[in-house]
Write a structure and sequence with these properties.
This protein is mainly beta and 122 residues long. 10% of the residues lie in helices and 45% in strands. The strands form 2 sheets. Strands 2, 4, 5, 6, 9, 10 and 11 form a 7-stranded mixed sheet that branches. The chain has a 4-stranded antiparallel sheet with strand order 1-3-8-7, with no helix packed on it. The protein starts with a strand and ends with a strand.
């Protein structure tokens, strides 16, 4: 399964970005999906997830600024990032689970994209 992210870049603090992730139709039809981020020296963090019934999860560090959504008709997962902070600088990875439940995605992500870099300048 190939997940492909796009939309990363270099932005100033306070700006916005929208990340996108495309993949096979069968993934978007039933699977929980999400976005991890990681930068050197820090642990990988699940920042947002969306379940098979469009239930959502957000890490406390991003609540109110990040919005996850999916368009199953376009086989695309989105992460809208607003009010960017320098601490948001990281590589963002699109992930998917074979299960529709976010709890399962948090335990194990079966599919990973190659990542897209987000750099926020102060």
């Amino acid at each position: 399964v190939q997940l492909v992210e796009s939309g990363g870049g270099v932005v100033q603090a306070g700006g916005s970005l929208r990340l996108s992730c495309t993949g096979p139709e069968r993934i978007f039809r039933i699977c929980a999906m999400g976005w991890y981020r990681q930068d050197p020296g820090n642990e990988r963090e699940l920042v947002a997830a969306i379940g098979g019934r469009s239930d959502t999860y957000y890490a406390d560090s991003v609540k109110g600024r990040f919005t996850i959504s999916r368009d199953n008709g376009k086989n695309t997962l989105y992460l809208q990032i607003d009010t960017l902070k320098p601490d948001d600088t990281a590589t963002y990875y699109c992930v998917a689970s074979v299960s529709p439940f976010i709890a399962n995605l948090r335990q194990r992500s079966d599919y990973w994209g190659q990542g897209t870099q987000v750099t926020v300048s102060s």
